[in-house]
Amino acid sequence: MRADSPIVRRAKAVPLLVCTLLVAMLPAVVTNNFVLHALTMSMIFAILAASWDLLFGFAGQVSFGHAAFFGMGAYASALLSYYAGLSPWLGVFAGGAAASLFGFLVGFPSLRLRGVYLALATLACSEMLRIVVTNWVTVTRGTLGFNLHPGFPNIPHTPTAHYYTIFVGAALSTSIMYVIAARSRLGLVLRAVAADDIRAQALGINVFRMKLLAFSISGFAGALYAHFIQLVTPNEIASSLTILIIAMATIGGVGTIIGPAVAAIIIHFVTEMLQIAGTVYDQIAIGAVLMLFVLFLPQGIAGIVRKKG
Questions:
Q1: How far apart are CA 283 and CA 194, in angstroms?
Q2: pLDDT of the chain along its 309 residues, tens only?
Q3: DSSP string, the chain
Q4: Could you tell me which of 306, 238, 255, 303 has the C-alpha nearest to residue 49?
Q5: Could you tell me the pTM of the whole model?
Q6: How far is CA 166 from the centre of its chain?
Q7: How many other β-carbons are positioned within 10 Å of the β-carbon of residue 297?
Q8: Distance (Å, whole) CA 130 – CA 146
């Protein structure tokens, strides 16, 4: 039987559906609010890791400024909710749109670059945004953080309700990314861009539009974060966050979407638990695990699953 036949694809989807159902049932067995909060935050990181994988693993674009699009989405949704009275539910989509607009402004000069030059350009833009939100105190409240915006309306302010809100957002966005990358014509377009973007553009592919896709999803994750935590600070745009996202995607398996999402949930949850012992141990653990995967399991968690399958 062919590996890409419908029956084989459905068989491979069964473990993923089982895992999704188990994650959905966790609030029924997890009673500790701190643990539930850590799991909720893990799903936001799952969106981020999957979106970076969409950008690098499929479109072949190296970005060291991914946190900027996350932060832009968070700040845009929070500021619009407070100053313009926009509903947080609409703010989620506004955050994605703001990240796309910022991606357009950043990408207009930088996405025409390649390799290390693109990486440095995105890092520079991320740092510029961090400096702006830090010093624009009258609007963003600077290093104090912005916390004047509301949470999600018509939802009980309980850990369980927040968990399911973020779970639905993470499940939908990750599924959309997976379908786009692995099961659609757009995924073939992204791979063509990664292989040779000049040739792809010559064939009529809008390379620039393809590269903006992952940025808007990062903004969507940022907006979810803003209304879940109800505090947005310049730390959400720090380069250390981008490095963490890249580590999660690498450990999960680049070019798979699901692998980075699963790795993000596991890694963020474990690091949150390790912070109880001390803030240094979680960083040491991530560094050690990343080194082991790069040296011995370069295909990540997804590669291990493929071998066993």
A1: 31
A2: 444 455 545 555 566 677 778 888 888 888 889 899 999 999 999 999 998 998 888 878 788 888 998 999 999 999 999 999 999 999 888 888 888 888 777 766 655 666 777 788 888 888 999 999 999 999 999 999 999 999 888 888 889 999 999 999 999 988 888 888 877 777 777 777 777 766 766 666 666 666 676 677 778 889 999 999 999 999 889 888 888 899 889 888 888 888 899 899 988 888 888 777 665 666 677 777 777 776 777 677 776 666 555
A3: --TTSHHHHHHHHHHHHHHHHHHHHHHHH---HHHHHHHHHHHHHHHHHHHHHIIIIIT----S-HHHHHHHHHHHHHHHHHHS---HHHHHHHHHHHHHHHHHHHHHHHTTS-HHHHHHHHHHHHHHHHHHHHH-HHHH-GGG-B--S---TTS-SSHHHHHHHHHHHHHHHHHHHHHHHHSSHHHHHHHHHHH-HHHHHHTT--HHHHHHHHHHHHHHHHHHHHHHH--B-GGGG-HHHHHHHHHHHHHH-TT-SHHHHHHHHHHHHHHHHHTTT-HHHHHHHHHHHHHHHHHH-TTHHHHHHHHH-
A4: 255
A5: 0.88
A6: 13
A7: 15
A8: 14
Structure tokens at 226: 């803003």
Residues in the chain, overall count = 309
Tell me the two tokens of residue 101: 């607009």
